[in-house]
Amino acid sequence: MSTAGSPQGALAGWHGLAAHQLVAEIAAGRLGAREAFLASVARIDATDGRINAFTERQFARGAAEAAEIDRRRARGETLPPLAGLPYAVKNLCDIAGAVAVAGSRIHREQPPATEDAVLVQRLQAAGAVLLGALNMDEYAYGFTTENTHWGACRNPHDLARTAGGSSGGCGAAVAARQVPLSLGSDTNGSIRVPASLCGVWGLKPTFGRLSRRGSFPFVHDLDHLGPLADSVEGLALAYDALQGPDPLDPGCQALRVQPAMPTLQQGAEGLRIGVLGGYFLQHADAAARAAVHAAARALGASALVDWPEPALARAAAFITTASAASTGRRCRPCSRTGMCCWLRPRRSARRCWAPSGSISTARHGPAAPVWGC
């Protein structure tokens, strides 16, 4: 690809700024949120015909959100931490007024979402500007984003290569500098694989740290939502904005925000970092091994670690996800309780669980399990 079509060539659209630098410039008034929004729109229009990262464009909403940020700055208000930052989300996340199709055409006739997913709400509250929804493997089951319905997502560094998956559109959109931030999901590697193949930063948070309410599930017990960004600082800023408790997601165990941004100054100090050997080195090609060794040298990691029976662990992962996904249901708030239900077959009925496994309200009585939601 030419320089103009590469991720590096797009830097001029944001004045050569990474995500954390962009929000700093907007907060200081040296760059408008509308400017950043229009630069992203122009970049998407110029590149997405080749890359195919976007499946849904939300430019009208993005324009309105950017204009509101500029109005708030003009009034002298203190701006939120991601003010004016363009972003997009994997198309399994609810966007108010749109259908979260999860990479499939089966759901396209479903009613549109009445509200944003929780993490989309948090990004909006933090001032980020939504541009749309991104390509993915159907139902998040895959590692290549070669989607039968929406077409394959290409790697911006080399259009003949895959962007990875299942959050391929998330990795490609950031790598192509269409947006500096995206929101993906990870069950067996769906953030980590595209981040690696597209050369961007990705975070699969600890299970339970971020709410998943308002996203189409693959495997409830293993699903994670998390950000992809063009810099580690941008990743930390986004992660901090996404954190917080959610009593309506039974899997969310977060009780408070634990900021990541202040810890970046510590670098790798105090961390124990090893390099996986054995199975992993044997199945990696020369270029991959060289990249791992270069990263290990930069981090001062010299310990070689052998993970016992990784082939069996890989097989177990596929068996577990296939089994669990086959019993999955769409997670929606229960019409009677308002709680987020994990619907699991229980003989001939389904049981609606609160985070504690029971619901205590005046309507249902103390600790009463609710049937037939």
What ranges have pLDDT less than 50 throughout 5 or more consecutive residues?
1-12, 329-373
How does the major sheet shape up? 6 strands, mixed
Domain module tally: 3
CATH superfamily of the largest domain: Amidase signature (AS) domain
Q: Give the percentage of residues in beta strands.
A: 15-25%
Q: Mean pLDDT, rounded to whole units?
A: 85
How many β strands by DSSP? 17
Query: Would you state the CATH class of the largest domain?
Result: Alpha Beta
The share of residues in helices is: 25-40%
Strand order of the largest sheet: 1-3-2-8-10-9
| End-to-end separation | 53 Å
CATH architecture of the largest domain: Alpha-Beta Complex
Q: Helix-strand pattern, N to C?
A: HHEHEHEEEEEHEHEEHEHHEHEEEEE
Number of helices: 10
Q: Assign the structural class, choosing from mainly alpha, mainly beta, alpha/beta, alpha+beta, or little secondary structure.
A: alpha+beta
Question: What is the radius of gyration computed over CA atoms, rounded to a whole number of angstroms?
Answer: 21 Å
What is the CATH topology descriptor of the largest domain? Amidase signature (AS) enzymes
Shape, please? Answer: globular
